[in-house]
Prior knowledge:
Blueprint: H1 3-12, H2 21-28, H3 42-49, H4 53-65, E1 69-71, E2 89-91, H5 111-116, E3 134-136, E4 139-141, H6 168-193, H7 202-218, H8 222-229, H9 239-249, H10 280-332
Antiparallel strand pairs: 1-2, 3-4
Amino acid sequence: MTIQALSWAIEDAPDVPPHLVATLVGLANHADRNGQGAYPSQATLAHYTRKDERSVRRDLIQLEELGLIRIGDQRFVLHLAEDKRPVVYDLAIERRRDDRPEPKRRGRPTKAQVKTGGRPRPPGRPRPKRGDVHVQNGGTSTSDEPFFDPSYEPTPPPTSSTNPPDPAQPQAEEEDATEKRKAQDILDSAQTRGRAPTHVSGSYATTLVARIVEKLREGWDADALTKQLGGNLANAGSVHAVLLNRLDRIGSPPVRHSTDPPPAYARCPKHGHERAATCAGCAGEAKGSKADDRPASTERLNGEAALRASRAAAAAASAKNRAKFQRERVTTS
Length: 333
């Protein structure tokens, strides 16, 4: 309800038949300041006008024929059930009547009227402005006319130079818009994946988008969040309620274990050094571990060399014995 729409319906609406005034005022009671988005039910208008719903329907048809109302944007009622959606009307507040009577002064006459006997003021004698003091028979009086100076222009409020505009505000607004678009894509993908009978829209979609943005800021990935929300929705009585319940039950995002080494500017998680790449504690431990491993490596290498040497000696002895046997065999023959 806005005073602008009600004021137009009561005072400025042109050519309104008397039996349609109550219906027009009832519509204005639900319109915004521009006269748009009024969608009261016929039962509500019947309650306002003390009529039955059939009479209200006739009144709406006559108001539309007179050009005082017109069909508005029906997206205002998309959040309601299809069988319970009233018609959205807009008021033609751009139309105004020109023959509005001037208000008559009531009450006791002023001192100026008593002095002149109610006669009009003589020509050439200006009417005093409000605040001008005139001495009349030892007393004072002020004019009853309001002061109006066409040349007067109100001074604009001073602009404060101590609070300059924040340059980061447009960037933050752009980031918020990007997050909302991403959340809307996730919501649409989840409903399509779950084969929802109807897609959520209106204020319900706005609520879900805000909750999805919160989950994205907590660290959830878009694909993982779509998978969590995109379960079976084919038999859901209320898609909005099911998705809201799933968002409430989703916990913290899954932990991702990265195999990449930490960046050079990262802190050492073990010793608390400023930079992990130059941590003296980690370097000393690595040097000690290499020194401890050196004897074991040397011993292993020495053992392998001794084994190869023994095998070579055995092969040489076997070859020497075969040569000796061949010489003896040739001598005997």
